[in-house]
Amino acid sequence: MPNNLNPESERLRKALDELVALNQIANAINALMSVDKITQTIVDHCLKKIQASQGAVFLLDERDKEADKFKTFIREFSTSTEKIPFHVNESLTGWIIKNKTMFASNDPDNDDRFKWMHLTKLGINSILAAPLLSRTGLIGSLILFNKKDSEGFTEEDKRFLGIVGSQTAKVIENARLKEQEQELVAMRQEMMVAQSIQKGFLPKSGVKLQTCEACGFNIPAKEVGGDFFDIVRLNDEKVFLSLGDVSGKGMPAALLMANAQAVLRSHLLGSQDIHLSELARSLNHLICEFTSPEQFITCLFGLFDSADNCFRYINAGHEPPIVVRDDGAIEVLDVADIVIGVVPEIVYSVHEIKLNKNDILIIFTDGVTEAFNEEGVQFGDERLKELLKGCVGGEGASVGEQILTTLSTFRGKSAQTDDITMLLLKVS
Q1: What is the CATH number of the domain that holds 330?
Q2: Which of the four pLDDT bands, split at 50, 70 and 90, describes residue 396?
Q3: Cβ-count burial of 142 within 10 angstroms (0-12 exposed, 13-18 middle, 19+ buried)?
Q4: Residue 71 to residue 64: CA distance in whole angstroms
Q5: Three-state DSSP class for residue 205
Q6: Is 195 a domain residue?
Q7: What are 225-241's pLDDT values in tens digits?
Q8: What integer pLDDT is reported at residue 1 of this predicted model?
Q9: Same domain for 210 and 350?
């Protein structure tokens, strides 16, 4: 059909075609699409409308918006042409990052911006590019190559791609936010599972013998923590206690915690003759061999034997335990060796303390004494000692609850910054 429209009619026809194409793109994209699908759909429609041979979308990494930090690289090609080398698109996008504007070039080898790239040798005869600008800034670029019409890209093509680029940036930004939300939900669910598993590692209840009673408390600062404790009844006279604090927080600390607890448990299975120094050696060897230098464990573990009412223990760089005597006296057991996981061949020393009737032994992590209130004041050792003086005659569980309540009141609205873990042993 011959084209005999006057200039005004031709202008209106092109404007209508442009609106139809933009409407088709809008209808083809929905809120449930992924970023990859959105970019592919947009490139497809732009190639069809502008009649270009190849197209590409670059999306910058959201955390590092530099020219060489691309998170996503998507391209569509006609079957009759070869792929454009990656470094070409990278260089073009680098130009857009710097200038944040559109450009069109129908003779790139003689274009001062790109002639050093010798694009004709790579099969690139014309280029049209639009920046993807969102409310937060530049997020990438939309680039078309090789207009099929020998005249090259037109001003109408440039205007159309500019409109698409502007709308595309908004759509991609919304899609990214949705994907991030979905990732956070999935991560939250995984953390809840991890939290449930970690809680399963800890004793469900305390241990009560005729001669003593032991209980434990653990309140992680995050969904999963690096503190652990264990209470194991070996027989009617002996109970094993362990408590540790893994360096760091979150999932890495939780994984290391699980391994440490497994080593301790494995030495207790099937044996009544527990050698504390050998247990410490095995745990230290494992941590030194299989973890990075910045990972270590402070821990205290030992045996209470009601045959002589002695608690024999090893302290590997941990907070000094406290004994509350029946007469109200406070004893701090401040002898300790180096932390677990630093010196491979260290020999750990076994210490012992005599516990009399109604004495209470308290083993705790620094999350207790290093709790801060809203003014930035630390709870500290002295407040803990004063608190314990008022706990003479109390049961282990009630003393533990009183400590937790006091800490919560002291912190007020200040967030818990570290795991809080305690073991209490009362001799009866």
Answers
A1: 3.60.40.10
A2: confident
A3: buried
A4: 9
A5: coil
A6: no
A7: 678 899 999 889 999 99
A8: 46
A9: yes
